[in-house]
Design goal:
Keywords: Methyltransferase, RNA-binding, S-adenosyl-L-methionine, Transferase. Belongs to the class I-like SAM-binding methyltransferase superfamily. RsmB/NOP family. InterPro entries: MeTrfase_RsmB-F_NOP2_cat (IPR049560), MeTrfase_RsmB-F_NOP2_dom (IPR001678), Nop2p (IPR011023), RCMT (IPR023267), SAM-dependent_MTases_sf (IPR029063). This is NOL1/NOP2/sun family putative RNA methylase. By secondary structure, the chain is of the alpha/beta class. It has helices at about 15-20, 40-50, 75, 90-95, 110-120, 135-145, 190-195, 200-215, 240-245, 285-290, and strands at about 30, 55, 60-65, 80, 100-105, 125-130, 150-155, 170-175, 220-230, 250, 260-265, 265-270, 270, 280-285, 295-300. α8 (about 200-215) runs parallel beside α9 (about 240-245). Bound molecules: S-adenosylmethionine. S-adenosylmethionine binds near residues 130 and 157.
Length: about 325
């Protein structure tokens, strides 16, 4: 079974959705503000003959038509990082500030960790955690190449994360960029569709619920938690939010993203979810010519008030 068949009832234009899922994904880099501004990266590309196309909805993202993000000196010198367009969205929603304490619960290989550190002007503390030691070595390598110094690395199962090794016991913000069935990455890795099973979806949903619950518990009252996946499956998205809303002290807030999105769904295969999951964002590939993604923003310590007083940088 092709899992994309399951989502035909959710999308506005089935043919456009299926056609976009069949196209290969553009190669994209993010300017690393810790080392160089987007303007400086643009100049460096011009000086060194790297072909690029700026992404119109976010300053500092560049599509590279030659498809080789690492084959130029701005990359080697840590001015850029290969990062898919939709992958920058959770950090925009998280909106971390310089000096804060931020937990990246499932962090490796560190695309979002390093973007968070950049958004914090490399000040404060990012705790980059992952349960996979091998993937953490890639994260360390990326942080070093990009010149990030505010990040410490932990290797724990995020579901039982202990703050004991840290000098503090709660965070201002937390990101759960969860392990998932990765359906939305089919444009760069079509194998995910062949390997897909419903059993895996249910198994990973259990992990997602545990990690998101721990992130809410580890974040101070009034703090922000962002939940993201690169999959379309409501079992791994809205159902996870619904579970955590029912069991932890938190609420979903409305927020803006600078590209076309669809709201979270409140019904799926006989299940219904809390009405507030419509505040989450679904990103379908045909809407912005990107990968598929899901992103939600939670406020700890009470119901979301339906608005995001902090705004989201574009
Ligand atoms: C989608 S990837 C994270 C990508 C990363 N945020 C980035 O932007 O580069 C999910 C990660 O979750 C990790 N993971 C899976 N189960 C975990 C658990 N129980 N606790 C912590 N990390 C886990 C995987 O090793 C994987 O690196």
């Amino acid at each position: 079974m092709n899992p994309l068949d399951r989502y035909e009832s959710l999308v506005d234009d089935v043919d456009a959705f299926r056609a976009a899922c069949d196209r290969s994904l553009p190669s994209v880099v993010r300017a690393n503000g810790v080392a160089a501004s987007p303007d400086r990266v643009r100049e460096a590309f011009d000086e060194s003959g790297v072909a690029y196309e700026p992404v119109d909805w976010h300053d500092g993202l560049f599509r590279l038509p030659d498809g080789n993000p690492g084959g130029n000196w701005p990359y080697v010198h840590g001015w850029t990082h290969g990062q898919e367009e939709v992958s920058v969205l959770p950090t925009l929603a998280l909106d971390p500030r310089p000096g804060e304490r931020v937990w990246d619960a499932c962090a490796a290989p560190g695309s979002k960790t390093t973007q968070i550190a950049d958004a914090m002007d490399d000040e404060g503390t990012v705790v980059a955690n992952d349960n996979n030691l091998g993937r953490l070595s890639a994260l360390r390598h990326n942080a070093e190449r990009l010149g990030i110094t505010n990040t410490i690395v932990t290797n724990q199962d995020a579901r039982n994360f202990s703050t004991k090794p840290l000098a503090f016991d709660e965070f201002d913000r937390a990101l759960v960029d969860a392990p998932c069935s990765c359906e939305g990455t089919c444009r760069k890795n079509p194998d995910v569709l062949d390997q897909w099973t419903l059993d895996h979806v249910h198994a990973v949903a259990g992990i997602q619920k545990g990690v998101l619950a721990r992130a809410v518990q580890a974040t101070r009252p009034g703090g922000t938690v962002v939940y993201s996946t690169c999959t379309f499956a409501p079992e791994e998205n809205e159902a996870v939010l619904d579970h955590v809303l029912a069991n932890e002290d938190c609420g979903l807030v409305a927020f803006d993203l600078p590209l076309d999105t669809d709201p979270g769904v409140t019904e799926w295969e006989g299940e219904t979810y809390d009405e507030s999951v419509t505040r989450a964002k679904r990103i379908y590939p045909h809407r912005n010519d990107t990968g598929g993604f899901f992103c939600a923003k939670l406020r700890v310590g009470g119901e979301g008030d339906g608005s995001d007083g902090e705004g989201v940088a574009a």
